[in-house]
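ENTRY TYPE: paired fold submission
RECORD: A
CONTENT: sequence, then structure tokens
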Amino acid sequence: MADVTLNKFVGTGDAAVMAAFTPVPPSPASAPDNGYVFFNTDDATLYAWDGGAWVVARGTVSTPLGLVFEGGGVALTTGIKGDLYVPFACTITAVTLLADQSGSVVVDIWKDTYGNYPPTVADTITASAKPTLSGAAKSQDTTLTGWTTAIAAGNTLRFNIDSVATITRLTIILTVTRTS
């Protein structure tokens, strides 16, 4: 019976550890049964050795980031409603609003570095295409016209309701694709 044991080496660490990773994995042509993977703890990325270089071993991953604004049974009010810390680099690909009932709302999103926390209106990322409900209970925007969609690892996001009517609970979800 042929030996079907997979010889493998798994490594973890930061970028410096990955750069110094030894032994250098052999080419798959000379050792097709060897599998080498490395998990980079700097950016939470899994890499595989392709015989000549480390390549990202996972495909694009979309992740939802969201907040719920709760009015406690009464209509929501304007103003700052919450903050998020984003520990990984990503790109916003969509925004979704889900309300408990038909109503109207306009939400602005502000972004800044952790060091400059808290973000202010001067840090808006939505341009003139703010997430909006108008006589509806749901909306989704995948175009994000004029938005600053890139988020660096360690950025903070602040959510501000500019205007609102009728809605007592609102969920805002940013769909993001990890870029690291």
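RECORD: B
CONTENT: sequence, then structure tokens
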Amino acid sequence: MRLAYLQAMGIPVWLRRDAEPALLEDAVGGEGEVWDALRTEVAACTACGLHASRTQTVFGVGSTQARWLVIGEAPGADEDAQGEPFVGRAGQLLNSMLLAAGFQREEVYIANILKCRPPRNRDPSPEESTHCMPYLQRQVSLLKPRVILAVGRVAAQNLLGTSEAIGRMRGRVHRLPDVGTPVVVTYHPAYLLRSPLEKRKAWQDLKLALSISESVSDCTPQVPA
């Protein structure tokens, strides 16, 4: 899947030297209890009107020791039903993108700006984002990621507090306000499914994120045989 994705775009694979996939492991001791408490708090949240229409909250998924944090905008119908972010066709493409960068899905952490699905998959309202953002900020604080990959316009604008177009945000390193964590902006996989010619730009964004974290991740470019 990873090779097929890159070969279709005519670009090399980035492999980790310690490439054996890491399986999701729960944090131990007090840290694990903090994650459990936060998840429980999110599941009981009624701060905005979205709680009335949700099937369940979508807290996040992945390794709590992850170096990469991927942030999307909000759960869709599949995510609302399964309680996990990025599980539909867009999620499959995101998995391929992560594999192209040398990561199994389980090696990163994936979350959204909102923990509940907006009706008809509309954009989050400012009020909804304001109520939900503290949960995401606490996830960032617990994870301490080396880099955040903001996936799509809505995620990037909410994270960075800007109305700038995604095309202008791409290609440079941003900093998360008040924290300073590097943020790289890329296109949402759902957009890439509709506009496959933009996948090369998304690969450039992934390489930028890799360049930030390579001192920790120790990534080496290799050309597929």
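NOTES ON RECORD B: The chain has one domain: 2-222. Residues 2-222 form a domain with the Uracil-DNA Glycosylase, subunit E fold (CATH 3.40.470.10).
STATUS: closed
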